[in-house]
Amino acid sequence: MVLNGPNLGRLGLREPEVYGTATHGELAALCRATGTAAGLDVDVRQSDSEAELIGWLHEAAAGGLPVVLNPAALTHYSYAVRDAVAMATAPVIEVHLSNPGARESFRHVSVVTPVVTATIAGLGFGSYRHALLAIAELTR
Ligand code: DQA
To answer: Is the pTM above the cut of 0.85?
Structure first.
């Protein structure tokens, strides 16, 4: 699963100087194509709702499915998302389009990082591509 949190559905319109001009649909297509080439069946989902994201993390844990997770702003304060990630039964890779460590100080903390397998940030859509290739390797 590739799970994207709040406001990522607005990619292309949202702060293009930070997040680029490509849309969430284009990101989903890139993830599916990367997955196909790497032998993964990729399911891309986006929600602005913390509860829905947590439900999807429960579903991944129950199914033993690896996750590429961009919790968006929830990264910085959601202990509920962190606790759901901590239940994972397969690798979870945290991704960010931008490099939060190089931005405002409130973005320097990720409450999710301590419970994920790895974090990839600052590479735009490349963060997702590298995360999917890592999952293919980890699950081979
Ligand atoms: C983000 C970084 C977060 O700080 C921000 O709230 C987002 C996107 C990223 O992908 O760069 O919504 O997760």
So the answer is: yes
For 65-74, how does the pLDDT look when each residue is reduced to its tens digit (9 = 90+)?
Answer: 999 999 999 9
CB 85 within 8 A of CB 56: no
Q: What is the pLDDT of residues 32-85, one digit of tens each?
A: 999 999 999 999 999 999 999 999 999 999 999 999 999 999 999 999 999 999
Taking the centre of ligand 1 as the mean of its atom positions, its distance from the CA of residue 96, in whole angstroms, is 6
Architecture of domain 2-138: 3-Layer(aba) Sandwich (3.40)
Question: Which residue ranges make up each domain of the chain?
Answer: 2-138
Burial 54-76 (b: 16+ CB within 10 A, else e): bebbeebbeeebbbbbbbbebbb
Please tell me the distance between residue 75's alpha carbon and the centre of ligand 1 in angstroms: 8
CB 137 within 8 A of CB 40: no
